[in-house]
Design brief:
This protein has 155 residues and is of the alpha+beta class. Helix content is 41%, strand content 37%. The protein is built from four helices and six strands. A six-stranded mixed sheet has the order 2-1-6-5-4-3. The longest helix is centred in the first third of the chain and has 42 residues.
């Protein structure tokens, strides 16, 4: 009988720990979703204001931006390089993200899936597509670690 009581206590403790871990994961995912939404709200303000610092701050220092039809841009200088290219060469002046799903893949990483739209200086839509972003929890908060996207329009 003593062993039965000990076994039951151990099983209940395991469920309690499991429940806390699951609860922690849910809380971590909700925290990430809120941080992603906040980041996405101000992301395109970088182009509206021509302020690359807003854009750069969305990315981790070891980020890679994987744009269509070009090699990946990786490292601390990648966001600035991409910002200048998008602003100066493509005329990006505003945009919109539509997050369709955020998947928890661990305590320090989540994946965001969604759609995007790009607008020029006349606020005309000039491109749209889909994206996957691997977000990384850093000391500075949730940052884009791998940013991959493609256009819905043909070349």
């Amino acid at each position: 009988m003593k062993y039965l009581g000990t076994s039951i206590a151990l099983i209940l403790a395991a469920f309690a720990i499991s429940g806390n871990t699951q609860s922690d994961s849910i809380n971590s995912l909700e925290e990430a979703k809120k941080a992603i939404a906040k980041s996405n709200e101000i992301y395109f303000q970088a182009f509206v204001k021509n302020d690359s610092s807003i854009f750069i701050n969305r990315y981790a220092k070891d980020a890679c931006i994987m744009a269509p039809n070009s090699p990946a841009l990786c490292g601390a200088d990648a966001p600035l390089h991409f910002f200048k290219l998008a602003y100066n060469s493509f005329g990006l002046r505003n945009g919109k993200f539509i997050t369709t799903q955020v998947y928890g893949v661990g305590e320090n990483y989540v994946v965001e899936e969604g759609l995007w739209q790009s607008f020029d200086a006349r606020n005309s839509l000039f491109d749209d597509g889909k994206f996957l972003v691997l977000w990384k929890k850093t000391q500075e908060g949730w940052k884009m670690f791998r940013d991959s996207f493609s256009s819905n329009r043909g070349n």
